Amino acid sequence: MVTINLRGGESEDVDADLLLFDGDDLVLWRGEQERWRRPRTELGSIHLRTSRTVTLEGVREEHPHAYRRWDENQERELLDLHAAGLSVREIAERTGRQPGGIRSRLNRLLGAVAPT
To answer: What keyword terms does UniProt attach to this protein (predicted)?
Structure first.
């Protein structure tokens, strides 16, 4: 569960297990489904309620390119793999990124993408 406090004083609780930044947006996911998206400029604070501790180093042990910026060559490779019919998980394994990061970038580049 994530509690988002917005700059206007409102707060929202979102059932999510993955938090990503996609360009200027904060995106929250639960499993294969995008649950919430807002521009960073609207955020006041983020409170994660979890029983486990996750570090960037720990995530990068399994996904070496997690949370790194995308360059044009990487985006081109992503689009090629997607066009070839690979699943999100297969693309994530090949590119060293998390499935949520793959979905988020595909959504940014192509619009809505099925969560496979």
So the answer is: DNA-directed RNA polymerase, Transcription
Residue 85 is predicted with a pLDDT of: 95
Residues 76 and 113 in one domain: yes
CA proximity to 29, closest of 88, 84, 95: 88
Q: What value does the mean pLDDT take over residues 8-22?
A: 88
- 69 pLDDT higher than 80: yes
The rounded distance, in Å, linking the Cα atoms of 116 and 41 is: 30
> Could you tell me the CA-to-CA distances from 115 to 54, 57, 69, 108, 110 in Å, in that order?
23, 26, 21, 14, 13
Q: Whole-model pTM above 0.85?
A: no
Question: How far apart, in whole angstroms, are the C-alpha atoms of residue 21 and residue 56?
Answer: 14
Domain with 74, as residue range(s), is 63-116
Say if residue 21 is in the same domain as residue 43. Answer: yes
